[in-house]
Amino acid sequence: MRSAKSFNVSTANHQTFLLVGIPGMREYNSWMAFPLFVLYALTLLGNLVILFVIKTEQSLHEPMYIFLSILACSDLGLSLATIPTMLSVYWFDSREISFNACVTQMFFIHLFQWIESGILVAMAFDRVIAIQKPLRYTLLLPNTVIGKIGLAILGRSFCVCFPVPFLIKRLPFCESNVLSHSYCLHPDAMKLACADTTVNVLYGLIIVICTLGLDVVIILVSYFLILKTVLSIASQEERFKTLNTCVSHICAILIFYVPMIGVTAVHRFGRHLSPIVHMMMANIYIAVPPVLNPIVYSVKTQQIRQRIHKMFQQKIF
G-protein coupled receptors family 1 profile domain spans which residues (predicted)? Predict the structure, then answer.
């Protein structure tokens, strides 16, 4: 058995964590830096353009586009909280991150993810109202109601994430301080603790079931109601036109949930896979959705597409 002295030394908390770029191939980290930088630039440009267009175009001051602007803010927040750290790892090989900075980053990552999930639910509810009661759409969803929905989403997300820093800070980290990714996540840091993490695991599981699981169920029920309404429309052309208003939202749902399910599946069942696969899935999970959302809404939403086209025409001529 170890002496009490050696036990106390070994269980002293690490003051820093080490982030990981391309596992086992640090010399190739710069290869990942450039595409990551391009994604970051496109994320900032795309979401800022969406916000500018919605703010300046009076015809877009509708519930659907207000929710879209909140989604864009969430994507910007997630990118600002993570990608600069990732770029410092890949471009400058700056792998060290302080314990407090790591905890802060994981809090904001999870916060913005829960906000995005909540916004997708609100947008599904918006589509139900717009399709079932088109004549009363703006009356049923005035700005006051949208504001309350936004505050409820923010409040729920904050309450869900608030215990995370305290759950991590109570754990001792006495052996390895090398994380699996180029940013900090609660499950990743939790695995390095040399203490019982049952509370952390149970909290994460309960939160996923009660929030993410509930969000998915509400979205599925919303689209069941939408399909029921659409199928009652006699004209096939009107059916197609009505369903087309949901395409952008369906794409946003897939963009958000598919990478999340993918990275979870790789963590749970892909331990035999190459560390590079884990690294690529983790990077896609964080970097790709925020850049795809503005592209999807710019391409599939006629009002936004026309306003952006007009804006760039004015800049050129």
Answer: 46-297
What pLDDT, in 10s, does the model give residues 98-111? 999 999 999 999 99
- Chain CA centroid to CA 66, Å: 18
pLDDT (average), residues 88-94: 88
In 3D space, the residue among 315, 300, 279, 285 whose CA is nearest the CA of residue 31 turns out to be 279
Sorting pLDDT into bands at 50, 70 and 90, what band is 316? low
pTM of the model: 0.88
Q: Choose among 105, 119, 81, 91: nearest CA to 34.
A: 91
**Domain residue limits at 190:** 15-316
Q: Tokens at residue 30, please? A: 């710069």
In a domain, 6, yes or no: no
Alpha helices by DSSP H, listed for 135-274, are: 137-140, 143-161, 163-169, 186-190, 198-207, 214-231, 236-244, 247-269
Q: Considering its fold, how many domains does the chain have in total?
A: 1
Q: Is 45 helix (H, G, I), strand (E, B) or coil?
A: helix
For residue 62, tell me if it sits in a domain.
yes
The CATH number given to whatever domain includes residue 304 is 1.20.1070.10
Mean pLDDT over residues 71-86, rounded? 94
